[in-house]
Amino acid sequence: xxxxxxxxxxxxxxxxxxAWLVDPDKYLDFEALNWINEADLDLILFGGSSVDSxxxxxxxxxxxxxxxxxxxxxxxxxxxxxxxDADGVLFLSLISGTNPEFLISSQIxxxxxxxxxxLEALPTGYLLINSGELLSxxxxxxxxxxxxxxxxxxxxxxxxxxxxGLDYLYLEAGSGAKEPVSPEIISQIKKQTGLPLFVGxxxxxxxxxxxxxxxxxxxxxxxxxxxxxxxFLAEVLEFKAMYNQLLHVx
Length: 250
Ligand code: 1GP
Fold this sequence. Notes:
The chain has 250 residues and is an alpha/beta fold. The chain has nine helices and nine strands. The relative contact order is 0.15.
């Protein structure tokens, strides 16, 4: 199934999704994830800020072999992180900053390869928003986050992204953020753009997942918390199933 179809089905139905972010640099402990029912996991995102390309390719193939039925989308930290073995790529533009490298230059570098590999590209506005912490994504991108208190500014950027034709928005607090993107910003951006929203960074318990879902996130992205405790993925998938069920009963 095409990734765009999967995401628009979620956004249109109001059902919520969970995406597991796998860092290509980290050892993948599949034993710890043996119980996962593939059907419950909506999406795997694969990528990171600094990755050796050999490790990237081999871990991606391993992941695809292990979870053949879970859609696998590249979340590229650079133009080198592309592979024909994935189902698609978040074609990100970091619109919360003004670093040309991440606004357009990396995308130019990647363009031929994306087409050659036949990857489905999801045009996605990437916004870094948190409570003022500087995390690895800020250092890597050489941009500052929008603050959780700057609601209007965040909405303005998101709207500009929509007007430019971006189909998806990824609201990112940064991996390991102390505070995730605020519900207020999520809900205002959802209300004023209507675009499907990925929300990630610093989400480490079901309460935070619920807050993001309630505010309007379509897909919550979880990285660190699963790395630390793989059973958290089970917990969240169960929570999501319950949330979706309640949503449809009421
Ligand atoms: C980072 O949004 C993701 O790009 C996930 O962040 O690792 O904090 O879950 P965490």
